[in-house]
Amino acid sequence: MSDEDNPSEEIPKGKRVAKYSRGALQAIGGAVPFAGGVFSAIAGAWSDAEQERVNRFFEHWVRMLQDELKEKEETIIDIMARLDLQDEKIAERVESREYQSLVKKTFREWAGAESEEKRVYIRNILSNAAATSVSSDDVVRMYIDWINQYSEMHFQVIGAIYNSGGITRGEIWRKIGKGLCGKILLMLISTSYLFVI
């Protein structure tokens, strides 16, 4: 989002000094008749500028929420397009409280899915959870938590390890397309697992 880099879109900072200064300008405006209009105009312009910042912040926030809702809508449409709702078992599963609970959990933690790749993971997990009963809902919840907790690189490393009989760190990085910097990151990732476990 390029709007985040724009300094005029920052969260407005309320300062007591600014409030007191505006109040003082308005008081001076009332006390000094010949300059009162000027001071009152300055105080009003100051308030208008601050209100404009607040308005821009809320506009940015509403746009962000609209984008998030659009992404959720697209994901739900993708999930429904992948499911055969004519199948009675799948239709019952989609309408069940357990499945709805999974969908709510996923969308409640939607901010953790910061990339398109993670959204594809979420779509696949929810589609498979509706269409099959291979995994329990507790396991599906764990997968959803993992998507929020780990980066795409973690999943690429896990995939490289899973899809080979035995693999070295260097082979992992060649397989996922990383160079020397990737080897350093792999060492950091592998040591972070020691702290997590």
Q: How can the largest sheet be summarized?
A: none
| Helix-residue proportion | over 70%
General shape:
flat
Rounded to an integer in angstroms, the radius of gyration calculated over CA atoms is 27 Å
Structural class: mainly alpha
Please state the average pLDDT score: 74
What is the CA-CA span between the terminal residues? 35 Å
At a glance:
The chain has 197 residues and is an all-alpha fold.
Overview of the structural elements:
- The protein has 197 residues and is mainly α.
- It is built from nine helices and no strands.
- Helix 2 (33-82) packs across helix 5 (116-131).
- The longest helix is centred in the N-terminal third of the chain and has 50 residues, at 33-82.
- Mean pLDDT is 74; it is low at 1-13.
Helix and strand arrangement:
Layout lengths: L15 H16 L1 H50 L5 H8 L1 H12 L7 H16 L5 H13 L2 H11 L6 H8 L3 H17 L1
Keyword list:
197 residues, mainly alpha, 77% helix
